[in-house]
Amino acid sequence: MPHASIDSPVGPLCLHEQDGAIIRLSWQHPEAGADETRLLREGVAQLRAYFAHELRDFDLPLVVSGSAFQQKVCAAMSAIPLGETRTYGDLARELGAAAQPVGNACGANPIPVIIPCHRVLGANGLGGFSGSGGVETKVALLRHEGAAGLLI
Q: What's the Enzyme Commission number for this chain (predicted)?
């Protein structure tokens, strides 16, 4: 599977492509033999621009594997503007679902950072974060986006 990686302020990130779409972002350097494509080069360029504060919205073809509910949660997370946050309950109300399944779907997000699960918080705190570094990485991403006023 074609993949490409970058070193970012939150550690190594690896984009994975399949059939002309980004399907996963993992928190590691890939195994040897990366087969970079035009899409992966664009994805890496957009990630670099995001971390350089030069990009507000990613514009990449994404395919979220999983149930229809997982896809709806990822679409709702993608609609949260840079520098803003929502709670699991906010998304649950928007989707007509309970907060716990929304939280589970956020934790199963296959394309973190690009699909901004870090922008979703618990009702009484940060909530969890499944990426490398856990909640500290979530805080770093929120600070990077200027959404950290609530964290200070």
A: 2.1.1.63
